Amino acid sequence: MSAAPAVNVARSAVKPDGRWRAAIAARRTKALTPRKLLKRDQNGLPVPHVHVIVRDTHQSRVADHYNSTLRDDLMYMNYTHKPADSKPPRNIRLSYDLEDPYVKHRYNPPIGGSFAWTRQALPPVTYENVVELECIQLHTMVKDALQSKSHLLGAIMAFRAISGLSTEQGGQRTTEGVQIVRGKKQVQGWMRRKAPVGVKVDIKGPQMYDFIGTLVHFVFPRMREFNGIPLPRQSSSLISASAASGVVSFGLPPMAMGLFPQIEYNMDAYPNNYGMHIHFIANTRGEGAQNRVRTLLSGFQIPFVRA
Amino acid sequence: MDIVAVHLAQVSRSLATAAESSASVPLSEGVTEATVAALRPSYKQVIKKRSDDTVVQTGIILNRSPILTRTPTRLERAYYAYMQRIERALHNPVPTEFYFKSGSLLEGIFNREENARERKAWGRPGAKPRKAQSSGNALGEENESGLLPGEEPPPQLMSRITEADRKGDVMSLDRKGERNLYLLVQARDEAGKDVWRFPQAVVGKEELLHEAVHRELRSPFGLGMDTWVVSRKPIGLYRPSVEPQPYLFFYKAHILAGQARPDGKSVLDFAWLSKEEITPRVDKSYWNGVKDMLSDF
Q: Of A127, A140, A278, A281, which is the most buried if we count CB atoms within 10 A?
């Protein structure tokens, strides 16, 4: 007890308070000053030491809704109860030992054919694998682009305005922005191989949830004669590729483009109205996965009706 | 028979939000005797397993989901502000020559708004930081009112704190908009004591578990509410420590509109409470049984 103040007194006698502060400040400044000057890019602008990436810039209301309410409800709705003493299902297919030297480097064809995944039962629902959206893809084909590529410009700009995305924006190297879609095959009178005929954009993360919010609150309520997205017949197969791939798709007519607030702001700038396909891609795959994704989407208030 | 018919009608109404369960349920609004009869065999199978002296009860966890976005913490606010500045620094400039005719009114408005956003992110050299405006109008500095002729004033935001928050009115559904609220009722237990618990119903001899839930929600106590039961499967089970008491299967439901009405007989009082407010009101063993079915936030 008595020693400590004595030391303090002694120190303050050697260095007065102001000099201490100045010494600390000098040391801090030295530590903060970069040793080398930053590299410059071709425009003469400094390149930072680290790769700067833009992450979430705001709280997403729809994503919050998913996390606080929908996630729990979907888990309860899709849950299948299995008594603790039930036997595991018998594996009726042959299974390879992948470490066996005979099969190690051979082509290993999927058991049950290349479409076996459509017949695979969905895994039992746990809190970890609740159905969740991964990506929304918008896609449009501009047929006039076969005559002149410049007709794509309006669609590119419209998608850029709707999605707010551009290539590698904010330092995110996986963000592809608006991409050009090219013809795959030569079809006489309709399509040329490798000709640019459409545009698409993948929306992920918080922007994806914001897009759902826009769709549900601005576009759907103002569409005329829109009752909802038609459901397939009840008897339709659950093991077709579309029913099992966990993707729900529908189209918007060209008149719906002007209902997006981003487009409505300067409607005159666009040479045309473009309809679009919207694909909701989720993290689930297997028999009847599409229905699970529909359940998820209806939780975001996207309406479905029986045709 | 009546209960089944009404229940089927309800299921078909709630189908818009339960697309997957539609496969096994008839869709027509008018439920015929034939469809009910078709369902009967499975009923018998279930009910046959239940011995005569078993008493089963269902509880309802009636939830009011958050109606406001969560208030971000200080760290989150700082993080978002930082990310917004980075985003502004790295963003591709808007190609105004495509989106606007040069010299048009819209271009002028856009440029002014863009300048305001730029200033908000970086400030002006030599200027003091502006105070946050309550109206949130970005054009306020150029013009006194900030409005162009024909432009409507921006809407005023409602307060996130309501009258019910100020009064601490536990019966109001407007309280604690950011939180999950749960309906707790005060009722008389077997010993004649008044206890707080979740709404519950005794499952009849010829009844399935989820039917008892729907029956309870249609009783005088729940008639004023528009509710939706999330699934036909229970979300949890409470095993009371004292053996003669019945097992309690819990179902999750959401309130969509309306309000609970205490009928004075089975339900004396009610309250909409968040998780930590429920703790002191209920019995300790009951709390340990139900606490994991409730959202922490």
A: A140
Predicted confidence band at B144 (pLDDT cuts at 50, 70, 90)? low
Count how many domains chain B has.
3
The whole-angstrom separation of Cα B244 and Cα B235 is 23
> What residues in B contact A68, CB-CB < 8 Å?
65-66, 180, 295, 297
CB contact under 8 A, A166 and B23: no
pLDDT in tens, B218-236: 988 888 999 999 999 999 9
pLDDT(B136) > 70:
no
Task: Give the best residue of B61, B99, B232 to mutate against chain A (max A CB count within 10 A).
Answer: B99
Structure tokens at A297: 């989407």
What pLDDT sits at residue A86? 82
Determine the average pLDDT of the residues in B283-288: 92
Q: Determine, for residues B90 and A304 on separate chains, whether the beta-carbon distance falls below 8 Å.
A: no
Q: How far is B120 from chain A (nearest CA, A)?
A: 15
What's the rounded Cα separation, in Å, for the pair A52 and A172? 9
Domain check: are B202 and B115 in the same one?
Answer: no
- For chain A, say whether B29 makes contact (Cβ under 8 Å): no
Domain that holds residue B34: 1-49
Does B77 contact A at CB distance below 8 Å?
no
Do residues A103 and A96 touch, judged by C-beta distance below 8 A?
A: yes
Closest CB from A61, A153, A292 relative to B20? A292
Q: What are the sequence ranges of the domains in chain A?
A: 62-82+121-306
Is the CB of residue A304 less than 8 Å from the CB of residue B19? yes
Backbone dihedral angles phi then psi of residue B97, each to the nearest 5 degrees: -65, -25
**How high is the pLDDT of residue A222?**
96
Distance from CA of B70 to the nearest CA of A (A): 8
Domain assignment present for residue B130? The answer is no
* A299 Cβ under 8 Å from any chain B Cβ: yes
Nearest to B230 among A58, A76, A161 (CB): A76
Nearest CA in chain A to B253: A73
CATH of A62-82+121-306, one of 3.30.310.50, 3.20.20.140, 3.30.1440.10, 3.90.70.10: 3.30.1440.10
Could you tell me the two tokens for A31? Answer: 């530590």
B69 and A61 in contact by Cβ < 8 A?
yes
The pLDDT tens digits of the residues spanning A225-250 come to 999 999 999 899 999 999 999 999 99
The pTM of the full predicted model, rounded to 2 decimals, is: 0.80
CA distance A64 to B177: 13
Looking at the fold, whether B17 and B40 belong to one and the same domain comes out as yes
pLDDT at B277: 95
Task: At B206, list the tokens.
Answer: 């010829």
Report how far residue B200's alpha carbon sits from residue B181's, in angstroms, rounded to the nearest whole number: 17
